[in-house]
Amino acid sequence: MKRNHKRVISTLLIMLLISTQPAVMAWADSAVPADHLLGDDEKTGKKTEYATPADADQKDKDAPKSDDAPKGDETVIRWEFVDDENLSGGELSLIGVSPENRADFDTVVSMLPEQVRAEIEEAGEVTLPIADWNCPEYQQDEDREWPFTGEYEFIAELPEGYVCEPPISVLVTLGGAMVNTINDRFTIDGLRYKELGPDTVQLIGYDGEKPVGTLVIPDKVRKPSNGREYQVASIGHNAFQDCSDLTGDLVIPDTVTEIGDNAFEGCHFTGELTLSDSLITIGEGAFYECGFTGQLVLPQTLVRVDDYAFAETTFSGQLILPEKLNYISAFAFCDSHFTGDLIIPDGVTIIEYGAFSGNSFTGTLTLPKKLKEIGRESFFKCGFTGELVLPDGLTSIGLYAFLDCSKLTGRLSIPDEITSIESGAFSNTGFDGFDTTKQEIADMLYDSGIGEDKITVGNQPYHHTQLPPVSFFQDGNMTYQIIGSDTVALTDYNGNSDTDISIPDKVTDQVSGTTYSVTRIGPMAFYDKEITGSLHLPNTLVSIGDRAFFNNMFSGTLSLPNTLVSIGDDAFCENRFSGDLTIPVSVSHIGSGAFYLAGFTGDLTIEGKLTKLEENGFSECGFTGALSLPDTLTYIGVAVFLDCGFTGSLQLPAGINHIGDFSFSNCSGFTGILQLPAGVNYIGGSSFFNCSGFTGALQLPKPITEIGEKAFYNCNSLDSAHLGPNVQKLGAQAFPESLPLSTDSPQVQILINTYLNQDTIADTSWDGKEDVPDGAVATIKQDTTVTGDRWIGTEAVITVPSGGILTVDGNLVVNGTISVEGTLVINGSLSGSGTLIVGANGRVVGDTSGIRVEHPDDIEAAKKMIESQTYTIEQENAEDEAAVKGWLLKTIETIPGFRDTGVTVGELKITAFTPASEGTSDRPDGVDGSFAFTLLLSKGNSVSGAGGVGIITARGYSHMTGSGSSGEKDDSNAVNPDILRGTWERTETGIWKFRQTGGAYAVSRWGMVDGLWYYFDGEGQMLTGWQYINQQWYYLCTEEDTKTKIGLKEGAMATGWHFDSAYQAWYYLGTDGTMAVGQREIDGKRYYFNPESDGTKGALQKEKEIL
């Protein structure tokens, strides 16, 4: 069935997709010569037999309808589109298409013509509908994305019974031109790559059969279609998953910064793994179940290791972690057979579930000084030996954390800050005993499974109070479990839903008569009870279990008692509380989703000693007031405050180092300046997305290595953002496109330019402590010294501003440019293929023999001095060219300020010489002569030409009194009045004027100077650019044009072909300078120039014929 494509398209889409060039009737007939077209209308300049659009409309009405169509195959010999308003030159240019704004097949077809006017062999003209459009090449890629760049030929399908050879077609160009396709895929040596940017690719896998044997990953590849070289910057998700026949070593080249999830999962490598020195991210399960041997050295650039990254591998050596590592995810290194010592860097504050479990470590374990939490089974069945030191500040030790670490010995001192030791944490370890200063910590040790004979409290033996067997009792509609001699946990509720819930501080067992304090709310105690009333918690409460109040409709305010220590996962999830919420200082743990969708309408104050906020902790709550966070906080998890309505400023505690994905996303009510703590090293994707209330300058801390996708996108009220020098990974759209960015690192500048679609290049400074990559542009912001070996890459530009000092004490290799407006002191060496450009006020001290040195400002200043002078020499001193040349050399040297430039005058040539004629009795004043000259100027490696013209004043005629001469000048040989004589003058504001020999300026007129035509307005100003003079358009050359228009100077009238970059169009200027419009024949070819006054008048409509 044929597709029925709609013609309706929104104004916005039209604005985004089609070119703004004027549309003309596009004729496309490659089968016959151009002179065989339907007609050639001299008045309209269009190939058509219709004099007016009305005639064409009438012709359409007279054309045969579908019922009149011939029954056999009729051949179309000539054709034109009827409805071609979206085409330009017969082509469809969708210049607004981009990676973010793609056009599917139906959208493209909706922009194409629906009818064609055709001449049928032996049957005349008919108007035919286009049945459909086809383009097999225009299709979705592997990611189901439509193309956004390139050229595609769409073929028209005519009604049954009509044929056209070659077929009727339209060339559709996406993105305005055929460019190197970004996101394009290509294969080299069996490996598949996807473009990430203009010079980087991602290795996404293999082509065909799974690879076997040794896998060689190159650092660079050259794309077959364009010959361009790309760096391999990342390895994609699942790239080589389950390629079980891979063997030998695996070397990740140093160009790779990211390895995706499950990239090498299930590969049975038999050798060692060498990772990139530039690696920033290792995805989940990246090397899961790989068969490596030897040690594993993680690069110093790595700051986090994701879940299962190296789980169940067969390493046989030591695990060496980088100093900057700050986060180790769940099961990251579990069952990986590592041996030797393990030193965990001090930046790590949390060790997640099973991170190192099941390894064969044979040495000691050194824990980080700032460690707060040891997760469940973190070191389960590890073979560590010797003593273990738990750092001060540690607050929790998870379930089975050190289970079966039987070779740990000595006595273990438990820090006073511990609030939780879970069951089996130290079961089957070799410790001789456990020491604490607190009775409650001793109780935790005992409850976790440690015998009382191994516990001391303040150097005294520990004695445990025996608890009765577990028993339950009922009080009203609540069930309690006895958990201590005088404490109970509330485990179940069986009452009504439309009531207030008040949990008492104390409750009495009616059977035994014993009164107990209610210290716990058990897991799921009020789960899904649909209670609509208020909730009152006991002042004796210590912990609230997972999902304790999940999925109710509690209303009113919630007051948490000051005795509370732990709040479980999803504890208050999905409720309708109102008012403020305060987390007491006693709380040390809040589980994931604890208050997700729990309501609230006021402030949130967290007073506790929390170090970590788990994911979704307060997501989608209705807070409308202030947020106050504890000073102890170091980690904010995923989506903790997502979609919360906080207002006022956001004060982040100084100790925070990790801000997770979506953590503050859509918190648009925050206002003021966002001050990020100095220790933050990771900002997750969308972490501050749509926080549109933040204002002022955003200063990103130096330790930050990664900023996630859309981290600050839609923060449109920010004035600017400054990135630190350690950023190595930037997500797409991390900042608003229009936000001015700056950085102290040229390396980071290149990262910004490569991965972010910013409106302007990031302002960058250079401190001399890092190499400058190719293409970077940076400025010395303070006096800077370069020590050691450093280099400045190709096309990179470093500027030393006025007043700044750059000192080179080491060896600096310059392959780009150093622009000196201030002072450059060279104590070491300066070399390379680049250029040292010294400005007018620049100063260079030291040896510059190893580099090219240019002085363009001095050369330009000297040139202007020479060309702005008026040169007049008397006849008696200008008898020949040699005399004029000698006089010029002396005169130039005496121009005020010329010698100060340090510029040397090279070869001087007299290019035109007309001697003066001495006065006679017939012409007493004589006839002045003239001359023109060129010369070379040089300083360092800078060379430029200059020139000028001068007058040779004639000697007057001397006669005796009474000779009969009238003394009047003979005008019989008067020159052309359009030729101006005099000198050019430039005002302080840069305006050129021409002072004639009589002293008056040329005004409101055309005038010829040195064979070139100029126009001067009513104030004597020489005009440039497009000018409308006497009902005609002219183009007078700009200073930029003189670089490409040979023989023309600034202001000179242009003739012939002219390409205007502002309008992106060709124009033609006749020999009299007037702009061509309509149809013109030039050099035997016919061209058509837009005659309409629509902003592009005179623009060529068929550019291809120029060639």
Plain-language structure description:
With 1107 residues, the protein is mainly beta. The radius of gyration is 42 Å and the shape is elongated. The model is unreliable at 1-71, 176-183, 958-975 and 1103-1107 (pLDDT under 50).
Notable traits:
1107 residues, mainly beta, 7-stranded mixed sheet, 6% helix, disordered N terminus, disordered C terminus
Would you tell me the overall average pLDDT?
Answer: 85
Structural class by SSE content:
mainly beta
Taken as a percent bin, the fraction of beta residues is 25-35%
Rg (C-alpha, Å): 42 Å
Largest sheet: 8 strands, mixed
Number of helices: 7
How far apart the termini lie comes to: 43 Å
Helix share bin: under 10%
Query: What shape does the CA trace take?
Result: elongated
Give unreliable regions as ranges: 1-71, 176-183, 958-975, 1103-1107
Beta strands, count: 80
Short summary:
This protein is mainly beta and 1107 residues long.
Q: Any chance you could write out the topology, listing elements then pairs?
A:
Elements (H helix, E strand, L loop, with lengths): L10 H7 L35 H10 L11 E8 L9 E4 L10 H6 L4 E6 L3 E6 L2 E3 L15 E8 L4 E2 L5 E6 L10 E4 L2 E5 L4 E7 L13 E3 L6 E7 L14 E2 L6 E2 L13 E2 L6 E2 L13 E2 L6 E2 L13 E2 L6 E2 L13 E2 L6 E2 L13 E2 L6 E2 L21 E2 L13 E3 L6 E2 L11 E4 L2 H10 L6 E3 L2 E2 L10 E4 L2 E5 L4 E7 L7 E2 L3 E3 L6 E7 L13 E2 L6 E2 L21 E2 L13 E3 L5 E2 L13 E3 L5 E2 L13 E2 L6 E2 L21 E2 L22 E2 L12 E4 L6 E2 L10 E6 L5 E2 L10 E3 L2 H10 L7 E2 L12 E3 L4 E3 L2 E4 L4 E4 L4 E4 L2 E4 L2 E4 L2 E4 L2 E3 L3 E4 L4 E3 L6 E3 L1 H12 L3 E4 L6 H13 L10 E11 L14 E11 L2 E12 L28 E5 L5 E5 L8 E5 ...
Parallel strand pairs: 1-7, 2-8, 11-13, 13-15, 14-16, 15-17, 18-20, 19-21, 22-24, 23-25, 25-26, 26-28, 27-29, 29-30, 34-37, 35-38, 37-39, 39-40, 40-42, 41-43, 43-45, 44-46, 46-47, 47-48, 48-50, 49-51, 50-52, 51-53, 53-54, 55-58, 56-59, 57-60, 58-61, 59-62, 60-63, 61-64, 62-65, 64-66, 67-70
Antiparallel strand pairs: 1-3, 3-4, 5-6, 6-8, 9-10, 10-11, 12-13, 30-31, 32-33, 33-34, 36-37, 68-69, 69-70, 71-72, 73-74, 75-76, 77-78, 79-80
